[in-house]
Fold:
Amino acid sequence: MNSRLLVWVFTALLLLGVASQLLLTQLSSGNLGAGSQEQPTPVPTPQPTYITKVRVAAPTSATDHRNDYTFELLNEVLKVTEPQYGPFRIEFAPAMSRERQLAAIKTGEVINVADVSATPHWDAVAKPVEFPIRRGLQNYRLLLVHCDNLAKFAEIQNLEELRTLRGGVNKQWSIAEVLAEHQFNLVYGEDYDGLFAMLAQKRFDYFPRAMNEIFREYQDRTQELPQLCIEPTLALYTVSHTHFYVAPNQPELHRRIAEGLHRLNASGGLETLLAKHHDLRRIRTELRNRRLFRIENNYIPSYRKLVNQ
Structure:
């Protein structure tokens, strides 16, 4: 009887030891009470979404609408490429002159995109997207003049006579280089809004403005400067075109803008946007019955001239 008891006690202790070992295993693995249920798959930590930051210079003033079209165009170009390149954000750096923009875009830190007329200076520093975003509108220029001088301009028959009068421009603009090369009599002003005031004060005789600029500029200033008029008989033609220039160290952004422009052009979206910002019918009408003076632009490569003819 005692031997049977000993066997029973020994067996119970053995079973208790096995049970204890199983319990310790469950506790160490964190599976106590889990039964046969499968463990949840760990949720991966979400990775931050990369956002393309596009930095451009802000307009020079509240009345500077020269880049309204190009800013909206840039936004649409980036939007149509979102599926391939991801989200984007356009940021405005402080307003700056063309010269400062040219210096800033070298590194791409302050600005990494600019829309300016093509010149060798810009080609040497930044990478142009070879697409004429204004579609040649800036090839044609009308003259903003003091209303007192309308009769004087109506008598002009050739460029030689126009050269005797004083034209007002900003020295950093591409048109200034073209006119200076052709011996025009120029008066320089550094401030965009200030040039309109200078004309109103008769400090020069005319202010040449591109077809995509002059009507809005005139409309915005008729109350403040009622002495300004759009000269109705003359027009200038010089090949000029605007590109998006991109910082040289950002090739993917350059590629994205190029692809977006071609897609928008193929879909008709570019023409729609152009018509939204410019009165194309009025532009065509204004060019009729004017004496058109052609001025050669030697500051852009010949192959680009062919693109814009």
